[in-house]
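Quick illustration, no need to memorize.
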Amino acid sequence: MKNDRNWFQAIVHLIVYRGKHIERFFLIAVILCAVCFPFVKVNYDLSKYLPSFAPTKQALDVMEQEFGYPGTARIMVKGVSLQEAKRIRSRIAQVDGVDLIIGADTLTNVYMGNEFITNDLTDEFYKNGNAVMEVIFKDGDSDKTTHKALEEIYQIAGKDRSCFSGSAVSSKEREASITREIAMAIAMSLVIIWLILTLTTTSWLEPFLFIFVMVVAIILNMGSNIIFGTISFFTFSTAAILQLAVSMDYSIFLLHTFNAHKQTGMDNNSAMEAAIKEACSSILASGATTIVGFIVIAFMRFTIGKDVGFVLTKGIICSLATVLLLMPALILRFDDKIIKTAHRPFLPSFDHFAKAMYKIRRFVFVFAVLVAVPCYFGQSMNAFYYGDDAIGAGPGTRVHEDTREINEQFGKSNLVIAMVPNGSVVTERELTETLEDLDFINYALSMAGTLPPGLPESFLPGEVKKQLRTDQYARIMISMDTEQESAYAFECNKKLEDTIKSYYPDNSYVIGMTATTIDIRDILTDDYNKVSLLSLFGVALVVMVTFRSILVPVLVIIPIEVAIYLNMTLPYVMGDSMVYIGYIIVSCLQLGATIDYSILMTNNYLSFRKTMNNKQAQITAISKSTLSIVTSGGILTVVGYLLYFTSSIQAISQVGRLVGRGALLSMVLVLSLLPALLSAFDRQIQKHHPDAYREEEITPKRKHFSGLKKNSLKSVTSQPEAEGRKEDETDHEKKIETVQGNEPETSTAPETK
């Protein structure tokens, strides 16, 4: 044990006295990660994250081997004749990256005369002077070759007079907008976070120092994603801004702990060594609750969870490393400037607020009891989106409006590809005719179904033949008159699969966004139960170790769980649809990121309860916890709502809204419901923590408390403001007490998130 202490002491000494070397190391690391960042690829295709056992994944693997992995688009050219539409289609067919384009004229020039065949596609693809075309690309929706081909198609068709929709178009527009939107959200977040920190700290330089450290951690995390090669659009959009929001407190606490020790008369280096020793276990333990919330997401079978979980966990580790290694060097370097830029606190005492919370405790308690059970069941009654519609562009964007206009002219077209064993032409033709007779099918295009009986396949264009048949498989292009994702679309897809299986029971596949969405839905629904239980168990275990109690962790978690239930039920009440991926991820994130609010409040209550009666401990705990909770919760709320207002991608926007609203609800319930719970179960808690309580009948002669144990999580314990505080306190001492809520000699645990 002594050797462990010596080893830890040596590391702390190295951090303090080798600050310049540490700064150089982080400078090199930041430069390398900044260089690597542009080479991290971003994937927008949800089907890539399907597990190997999913039917759609197996079908996609076969299709990629036989025909490639195509992206798709739908184009409507306005005000053209059939002849002009044919010329445009012919030019698009020659674009590098385009594999097949189907239009009204696809079959008209194949035969020597119209008497041999009637073009059944004309009515589907040409109406009122408008021509619509279905494009299939050689590569995937998010491939650079596909996006380059789309740029050429925009020029050929005329971007101003044409409408463009489909998964490839959505992917290209998302890629173009996502970097701009996230950069804007981060920039706005930094400004607002600076304002929040300026209000809640007492030095003009401190907010800049905190933000700089977090920016370094973000660059390290985003650049180091190159080890994964490719990350999801969801991770790319949310990781940086969420990392900024949930890990800001680590650096705040380290600086305040340093200031507290410096007030005891220590020199800067000694004060920093003491601060690192004191803060390390608390900061690491606090980071553990957040990491648990993130890492369990990686256990999802839908592997986008692994992508999100690993990147966010790595982000917290980067933040912890930056705070514990780089932050001490920066604090020592700029300490004199922090002192010179000190100012008086802007925020008043929260005593009146605490008394108000105490007065409404019974109402809040009754409210929580009444809504907890209905909200628990209500959250599962939401209308959910699972697939590509969940990441589609929102109303008001060009893609959304173009899709709506095309659907108004030609109806919906949900492109499905069926692959069947290459064998009997008669069976293939019969299947095609049966499919076309289904009331939800716009058209079915196959090699056998296109040719009249007796005509050789050589009559078909080469571009059609290579897309419809290989040595092993024949492919049927099917357009369903449905949305990609709806109960009706799922029903139609089931009928389609059953029809195909009736002709080809073995080795036949149905591929499309609807089939993919069905698999995603089934997997995600099962994932939620597993992930939510793991998250709850993991966080509860961390809290249980902290408090060495079974009852206290239950009370600590209740306000956060009620906040999660409320947060997830409100969309149902308001009639909004939810993105299921966001539903899972935010549930875990909200628990891991806001549980520290409850831990802070509970630690303060238990500490004040040593010298105060029940009522006094509640009020004082609320008063001393509010600043930290509002600071951290306010940052997370602002960051969430900025994502909501700035992102045009529905999944990202909705996740931002859930994060922001969840942080706000967690703050409110921790400040109101948790003290009521602690008071209601005061006697039961006393049995588990007898040394933390005073006898109820004893009235303390003075308000005093002792510090918490050093292995406790993020708690700000402070001596209550005594009546008649000495007037000769220095302004800097007031600054430390106001911002940190600790007197120097009793500060032992960090502020909460």
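Residues 375 and 565 are 5 Å apart (CA to CA).
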